[in-house]
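lol forgot to send this yesterday, sorry. struct tokens for the thing we talked abt
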């Protein structure tokens, strides 16, 4: 009996020793899970920053300008265009109050009707012009994600480059005109609301709306402008590198308009200038835990050392990858090792 008891005791001590060796070589603080009941140190400041997504993008915009001279007559003299209220008398020798630069900064002047002047009446045809502009928008925004929804604030600075205007009707007889400036800087300030409606592998598909105010360049007569409100509808597609880093493309259409008042005559001209956008950008969340700096640690998932949590991957890699997920290609097949006899 005593021999059997000794054998059981020796067996028990052997298991205890083996367990002690395993614990010494694989401490609990280096596991890839959180030991139950262990107090984990996390930075509250990092946690707050992690909830805010920072986005930056660069893109291309095409703006479609258009306006109708519904209550104005159009007068052409030697290729130069003027507008006047439709109630104005246009008999030979009459002096009219006319305007030039009615697109951005109206300039008034007196014009005496002469022989050879061409007059297009507002009542007889739909007078108006269409034009365009190319733009390079840079957008910066901050938003908060809650499940599949997002809400935030942002601004866009767009370098706006004008193109010529052409008449809507009578294109063979009415000449076009160009704006008095070639380029200008437009600023937008907005709130953004979005929803993630689909996910496929590393891609996410979203819908969002930006609502805000646009501040046109000083090259416009801001004192006599009304409007400035815009709405932009977009369908961003994101490629997810990790929970901290995504790249995206955002096609969008933006509606906006402004009204330019002619104070001397009490009339106004409404200008529509909706835009189509394509923006390419990056989204970033500040990591809530730091990268592991323990020498010799090869843990790839989020893990713990001394009660503090760390991540085992750079920000552009998945933080809790499955086997081979972050490294799907064997080293010997990578381009830098293709010509090596022994890539390992």
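and heres what i got for the seq, position by position
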């Amino acid at each position: 009996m005593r021999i059997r008891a000794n054998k059981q005791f020796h067996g028990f001590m052997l298991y205890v020793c083996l367990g002690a060796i395993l614990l010494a070589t694989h401490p609990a603080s280096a596991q890839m899970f959180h030991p139950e009941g262990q107090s984990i140190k996390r930075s509250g400041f990092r946690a707050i920053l992690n909830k805010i997504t920072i986005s930056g993008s660069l893109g291309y915009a095409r703006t479609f300008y258009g306006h109708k001279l519904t209550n104005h007559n159009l007068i052409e003299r030697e290729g130069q265009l003027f507008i006047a209220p439709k109630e104005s008398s246009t008999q030979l020798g009459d002096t009219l109050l006319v305007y030039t630069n009615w697109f951005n900064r109206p300039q008034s002047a007196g014009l005496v009707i002469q022989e050879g002047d061409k007059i297009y009446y507002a009542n007889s045809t739909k007078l108006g012009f269409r034009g365009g502009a190319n733009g390079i928008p840079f957008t910066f925004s901050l938003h908060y994600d809650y499940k599949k929804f997002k809400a935030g604030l942002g601004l866009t600075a767009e370098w706006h480059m004008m193109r010529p205007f052409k008449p809507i009707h009578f294109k063979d007889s009415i000449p076009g005109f160009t704006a008095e400036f070639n380029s200008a800087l437009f600023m937008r300030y907005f709130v953004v609301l979005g929803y993630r409606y689909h996910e496929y592998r590393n891609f996410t598909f979203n819908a969002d709306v930006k609502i805000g105010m646009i501040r046109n360049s000083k090259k416009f007569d801001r004192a006599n402008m009304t409007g400035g409100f815009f709405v932009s509808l977009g369908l961003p597609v994101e490629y997810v590198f990790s929970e901290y880093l995504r790249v995206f493309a955002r096609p969008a259409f933006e509606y906006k308009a402004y009204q330019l008042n002619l104070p001397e005559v009490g009339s106004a001209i409404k200008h529509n200038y909706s835009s189509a956008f394509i923006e390419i950008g990056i989204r970033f969340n500040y990591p809530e835990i730091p990268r592991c700096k323990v020498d010799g640690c090869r843990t790839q998932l989020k893990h713990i050392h001394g009660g503090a949590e760390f991540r085992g991957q750079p920000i552009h890699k998945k933080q809790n990858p499955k086997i081979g997920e972050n490294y799907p290609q064997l080293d010997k097949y990578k381009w830098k090792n293709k010509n090596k006899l022994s890539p390992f």
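The radius of gyration is 34 Å. anyway ping me if u want another try
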